[in-house]
Amino acid sequence: MISRSRKPQKKLTIAMAWWWTWGHVFPIKSLIEWIQKKPQYVDSIHHIYRFGSKDSLESNVCSSFTEEQPPIDFIPIVSGKLRRETIRQSRLKNVRDIFLFIGGFFQSIALLLRYRIDVVFCKWGYVALPISLAAGLLHKKVIVHESDTHAGLVNKIVARFASKVFTWFDNVLPKSKTVGQILSDEILVEDMPPREHDKPKILVVWGSQGSRKLYQSLIKIFETNPEILSSFDFYFVLGLLNQEISTELDKFTSVRSYAFLSQKEMGELFAICDIAITRGGTTSLAEQNLYDIKQIIVPIPRTHDQYDNARRYVQHKKDIMIDQKDVGFHIKLVKALMKLRAFKKKESDIDRQAIVSRAKEIIIKSILN
């Protein structure tokens, strides 16, 4: 009998679409890096195209990849978004953005055909919608990952026709599979440092988005409540837009500040810190929870998803949420810190590598299957 030789499997061309925020850009960066580490995945992929906004964080991150295989290129597209400001502010912008979205949709159809895209991975954000809808129209495979406790509008739409839908939390989207958050391997610390007689350590990581007043509020707390400074060691990660605040923090002996840290350096801080004063972004909360950190969550006021995320952690992890809009925000933060003066985290016996790997493995296999 003459055996028939099997045809070599076609290498896939993949488009990844997500918007500009740190909490969504860097998880996808880690997903691509995971692919690059696995020869079997590299051999299955012809090309990865990153679709997004021109001159954006995702564009800069895409250009930072040094591995040549699989090839990775950034392609800018236009898109509009549904704005939820006051009627007067949003009406004209929404009318304009309808035309931007239509233009982005037809642009996406042309790009999918031109680059012969086989699969579109949709993470989040309005820029992902035109390319995902175009993929659905052309009967391309579409994979969705939703990381918030409640799905955003784009993922709600795309999930209706997607081949696979993955979530971090249960019951977020119909017919979805809970796989957890996409986290970077770079945050993993092999040997946890010993913690015995030192003071509790607090990580303050509010980022750049609308956080200047929060940092200044903490500086005022330091000046008026010296017992807090004597009770904790503080580590501030200010973000690139708040670097000048570091000069104000330098006068406090128990405070260290950084403008920007790599994922590896952030992992080292997660390992030594007991408490985090943080925003309610899904990636930050998941990374800090991975290291058993007690979280004081201050959601960005204009984002309902961060409030939902914070409530979830308060309910299931016994973390603390403080609303920045509260008149008594300053007092509530002081009280929360005073209650935690003797707090030291208890490290759980978990396989962090397995947790970090799980979502990426499941998603990549679904993309390539």
Helix content: 40-55%
Distance between the termini: 31 Å
Overall average pLDDT: 86
Q: Please tally the β strands and state the result.
A: 13
- Large-scale geometry: globular
Fourth CATH level, the homologous superfamily of the largest domain: Glycogen Phosphorylase B
Name of the level-1 CATH class of the largest domain: Alpha Beta
What spatial order of strands do you see in the largest sheet?
3-2-1-4-5-6-7
Give the tags:
about 375 residues, alpha/beta, Rossmann fold, 2 domains, 7-stranded parallel sheet, 6-stranded parallel sheet, 14 helices, globular
How do you describe this structure in short?
The chain is an alpha/beta fold and 369 residues long. It has helices at 22-37, 39-42, 57-63, 87-114, 128-137, 153-158, 212-224, 226-231, 245-249, 263-272, 282-290, 304-317, 329-339, 352-368; strands at 12-18, 45-52, 72-76, 119-124, 141-146, 164-167, 177-178, 201-205, 233-237, 255-258, 275-278, 294-297, 320-321.
Provide the fold topology.
Blueprint: E1 12-18, H1 22-37, H2 39-42, E2 45-52, H3 57-63, E3 72-76, H4 87-114, E4 119-124, H5 128-137, E5 141-146, H6 153-158, E6 164-167, E7 177-178, E8 201-205, H7 212-224, H8 226-231, E9 233-237, H9 245-249, E10 255-258, H10 263-272, E11 275-278, H11 282-290, E12 294-297, H12 304-317, E13 320-321, H13 329-339, H14 352-368
Parallel strand pairs: 1-2, 1-4, 2-3, 4-5, 5-6, 6-7, 8-9, 8-11, 9-10, 11-12, 12-13
Helix pairs in contact: 1-3, 4-5
